[in-house]
From TrEMBL:
Domain G-protein coupled receptors family 1 profile: 8-259
Protein known as: Olfactory receptor
Coiled coil found in the keyword field: no
Organism: Myotis brandtii
Main location, first listed in the record: membrane
Compartment(s) of residence: Cell membrane; Membrane
Alphabetical keyword list: Cell membrane, G-protein coupled receptor, Membrane, Olfaction, Receptor, Sensory transduction, Transducer, Transmembrane, Transmembrane helix
GO biological process: cellular response to lipid
Keyword presence, Membrane: yes
Pfam families associated with the record: 7tm_4
Length: 279
């Protein structure tokens, strides 16, 4: 799965970089998504391989904090990028005449900077909120990597602030992103239904299929692992482990497969790129 995630997303990044026909807002956003997937995979790779391949059972506290911050940051970046991609689809379908003037290269860069800044600023307090807690209960984590909900449960002090801040981050970022994506598709569907031709409707909706699948691949496992963490106290331990691995492994693996399979321009660019390499 790591090979597919790292290899597939790297191929998409390279294809967007070298293929002039992909130098468009939609594919710039796709390359940002691929970058966040690569970064997420690299953040979890050391501890997951040590745990499952080398049977290593320990991680230093500081290293755990860094990994926790990186995982949550790249996950939030991916959510923001999916929101930006939904805006791209909204403009392309609902206001196509102004697409080139609305989504300029400067706007795309601004979106990328805003998504990155939001992740860093919002999650910056998390390591410090964990550092203030005394760890005097079990020091056994539920996963093969470090997450904030898992780490704060190891403390033998009041974790109310951590819980409230974690819930605030979840609702104000991931929750608002998901709501905004849903609202954008309500507007897109309303615009598509106004198109007289059935073929034109299908053509317009087909441009959204890849993005919809990417949204489902990201949010469904995330909602599942959040639900298990908050309400699954009596759920078997292996369910926690399974859901957490699905949450971090599935999106980076599926995204390059989805976009390669559903987007003709990406497929053609990848084929041309490999042909040039062979020559």
């Amino acid at each position: 799965m790591y090979a597919v995630a790292l290899g597939g997303n790297t191929v998409i990044l390279q294809a967007v970089r070298v293929e002039p026909s992909l130098h468009k807002p939609m594919y710039y956003l796709l390359s940002m998504l691929s970058f966040s997937d690569v970064a997420m995979s690299m953040a979890t790779l050391p501890t997951v391989l040590r745990t499952f391949c080398l049977n290593a059972r320990n991680i230093a506290f500081d290293a755990c904090l860094i990994q926790m911050f990186l995982i949550h940051s790249f996950s939030m970046m991916e959510s923001g990028i999916l929101l930006a991609m939904s805006f791209d689809r909204y403009v392309a379908i609902c206001d196509p005449l102004h697409y080139a003037t609305v989504l300029t290269n400067g706007v795309i860069v601004g979106m990328g900077v805003a998504v990155t800044a939001r992740s860093f600023i919002t999650l910056f307090p998390l390591p410090f909120l964990i550092m203030r807690l005394p760890i005097c209960r079990s020091n056994v984590l539920s996963h093969s990597y470090c997450l904030h909900p898992d780490m704060m449960k190891l403390a033998c002090a009041d974790i109310t602030i951590n819980s409230i801040y974690g819930l605030f981050v979840l609702v104000s970022t991931f929750g608002m992103d998901l709501f905004s994506i849903f609202f954008s598709y309500v507007l897109i569907l309303r615009s598509v239904m106004a198109i007289a031709s059935h073929e034109e409707r299908l053509k317009a909706l087909n441009t959204c299929v890849s993005h919809i699948l990417a949204v489902l691949a990201f949010y469904v496992p995330m909602i599942g692992v959040s639900t298990v963490h908050r309400f699954g106290k009596h759920v078997p331990r292996y369910i926690h482990v399974l859901m957490s691995n699905v949450y971090l492994f599935v999106p980076p693996v599926l995204n390059p497969l989805i976009y390669s399979a559903k987007t003709k321009e990406i497929r053609r660019a990848i084929v041309r790129m490999f042909r040039r390499i062979k020559m």
